[in-house]
Amino acid sequence: MAHEGITQKKLEAIKKDLEARKFELEQEMTGLYQEKFSDDQVQDSADEALTSTMESLKASLHDTKNIEYKRVLQALGMINAGSYGVCVDCSKPISDKRLKHYPNATRCLVCQETFEEHGPEV
Ligand SMILES: [Zn+2]
Q1: Could you give the residue ranges of the DSSP H alpha helices within the chain?
Q2: How many Å lie between the centroid of ligand 1 and the Cα of residue 108?
Q3: What's the average pLDDT block by block, 10 residues per block, for the chain (122 residues)?
Q4: Domain ranges of the chain
Q5: If one looks up domain 8-118 in CATH, what number appears?
């Protein structure tokens, strides 16, 4: 499946942005986290450990940073898997505008609307 509409160059730029944002959020959240748990460090390389750290963070940090961070992680995962920016339902490219707001979007707007009409929002 070709990435119509998304060039490799563009993808690299997006990935860079997401990684920068991920780092920023980590810094912010680690700061918050360390106020309570001073000896716990968030490791950059260990995404799995990070995920479980995020689970504990979730309990105390129900805020937009947390949600955004998960989106960024998901988006990075999709870039690595080569499925970023492509709708899972119709296989068409997802619009740039939509990806800017929802970097982890897995459906184009049309399919998302259909999905929301027929099932609960995830
Ligand atoms: Zn679609």
Answers
A1: 8-36, 47-60, 64-81, 96-101, 109-118
A2: 4
A3: 69 94 90 58 60 63 78 94 93 91 92 86 51
A4: 8-118
A5: 1.20.120
